[in-house]
Amino acid sequence: MKRRPPRLHKGDTVGIIAPSSPPNIERLTKALDFLDKLGLHYVLGNTVQLHNHYLAGTDQERAQDLQEMIEDPTIKAIFCASAGFGAARIADKIDYLLLEENPKIFWGFSDITFLHTAIGMFSDIVTFHGPTLSSIGRENVMERTKHMFEQLFQPAEIHYDESISPLTTICGGAARGEITGGNLTLIANSLGTKFEIDTAGKILLIEDIGLEPAQIDGLLNQLRQARKFEQVKGIVIGEFTEIHPREYEDSPSLDELFESYFKDLNIPVVSGFKIGHCEPNVGIPLGVDVLLDAENKDLAILPGVE
Fold it and tell me: CATH number, domain at 40?
């Protein structure tokens, strides 16, 4: 299990950055009120208001924003204001050793997956797969989504079972291991880079949005041929949102597709977790040990902070 960052306390200051695409300012403003209610102060990074086509500033500006938040000892957590595209472009511009020596909470999801993988690999600390602040500012955000921020203030185990959402056992069994992963597209994008995801002995989380089944098939096949399923101990399937056949109308269901890739691995595989582009979006730590029990449809997750 990776090193856990210190917990937050009321009155702490957190940094807000946009390492990918520009945030929706109206929704971000609503999220700042949410941080106020949590008792947190905040510092807005420069990238929050920068635009460079579909990026929140240049690569150098986005990398510098993240680096300054890492270096500032008064910043106790780094929250991503938005995702979108571009986080992978700054992954090789960050001082991971400094973050390892001074661990702090790092929170985001979707395109931020690439940075989760990089930080886990080179800083060896726990990070948090959770909604961006722009997501918190949406009209339909659920209380459970907001509630998951409380785990940053008090170490607590998370138990995800069918009291949260219906779950489907695709392959039975139980396994314990360190959880890793996030967005399926970004996991695949890490292959062949120095940030290539390590799945050996781990529980793999996958989620995605806006793809059709044939595209998911292609991504899973890429991971299979990269031998990422050979030593994985279990698979947690989060929300696959807005998945519709477009070019290929005669497409398998998602569960059929997952079963075709995972049924012969003899590892627990469960789908239906509300983790990803959905409401609620259940924020969880990455890099901690979890127990995935496919028979009882339960995921037990150790605390992510000290």
Answer: 3.40.50.10740
Domain that holds residue 253: 158-301
Angle at which helices 254-262 and 213-225 pack, to 10 degrees?
Answer: 10
Q: Does residue 62 fall inside a structural domain?
A: yes
Rounded Cα–Cα distance for residues 81 and 251 (Å)? 35
The total domain count for the chain is 2
Question: Could you tell me whether strands 168-171 and 269-271 are parallel, antiparallel, or unpaired per DSSP bridges?
Answer: antiparallel
Distance CA 69, CA 77 (A): 8
CATH number at residue 207: 3.50.30.60
The pLDDT of residue 246 is 85
Quick: pLDDT tens for 71-105: 999 999 999 999 999 999 999 999 999 999 999 99
Name the domain boundary from 114, 129, 152.
152
User: Could you tell me the CA-to-CA distances from 93 to 63, 119, 210 in Å, in that order?
Assistant: 6, 12, 29
- Given 109, 133, 152, the domain boundary residue is 152
173 and 94 together in one domain = no
Strands (E), the chain: 13-17, 41-44, 75-80, 105-108, 127-129, 158-160, 168-171, 174-183, 202-209, 234-241, 269-271, 284-286, 289-293, 298-301
What's this model's pTM, rounded to 2 decimal places? 0.97
What is the maximum span of the chain, computed from C-alpha positions, in angstroms?
55
The catalytic site residues sit at 110, 207, 277
Calpha distance 89→195 (Å, rounded): 12
For the chain, the residue count is 306
The per-residue pLDDT for range 142-191, each reduced to its tens digit, is 999 999 999 999 999 999 999 999 999 999 999 999 999 999 999 999 99
Residue 78's identity, in one-letter code, is I
pLDDT of residue 248: 85
